[in-house]
Amino acid sequence: MSNYPELTTRNSQLATRMSDKTYYNPEDLKKFGNITEFQEEMGKKFFDYYGEVFKQGTANYLSTQKRLMLILGHYKGIDQRVRDLHVTREISIGDYVLSGGELPAAVLVDSVSRLIPGVMNDGTSALTDSFQDGLLAPPVYTRPADYKGHTVPEVLLSGHDKNIDDWRQSQSEEITERKRPDLSE
């Protein structure tokens, strides 16, 4: 069995059915099976504006979990009793309000699943993404080498791996300092 999260059919059905309602009666959970059997095996995540802000470190951690269950609120959220009894972690994707938890769930699923080996063609690619080392990623250049007078930096065409790595590192540091100085605090 894999040590990576899986969104089982049962969990997906629970999340989908719960997201279709505006208010939840705690007794509704009984319709979806014995939810407590999941409680010891997985944490239930609920998306809420006063939860912890979702960051790359959270995605990294969640990608190592065996299973995840996402509880999606709609409009005003979920019944407080469901939250008190079943939610183990509240997550926010930012300081704004959406009408439901479907978009935050999509953000989390995409961010976490790309860290699971085999999901992306290059398994090491996710390890060099922005935020993995507290820095933004360096600029990306593709072909052609000259596009409307804008050229690819010479170092990237050199084939010298160490120089390329050094250039990427310095670009990441410069871009982070200029665009997201909060990351280095």
Task: Describe what you observe in this structure.
The chain has 185 residues and is α/β, with parallel strands linked by helices.
By DSSP (H or I, 4+ residues per run), the number of helices equals 7
Give the structural class.
alpha/beta
Classify the beta-strand content into a percent band. 5-15%
Secondary-structure element string:
HHEHEHEHEEHH
| Average of the residue pLDDT scores | 78
Separation, N- and C-terminal Cα atoms: 40 Å
Radius of gyration: 21 Å
User: Tally of extended strands?
Assistant: 5
Largest sheet: 3 strands, parallel
What is the strand arrangement across the widest sheet? 2-1-3
The helicity comes to: 25-40%
Categorize the overall geometry: elongated
Low-confidence residue ranges: 1-25, 28-32, 34-42
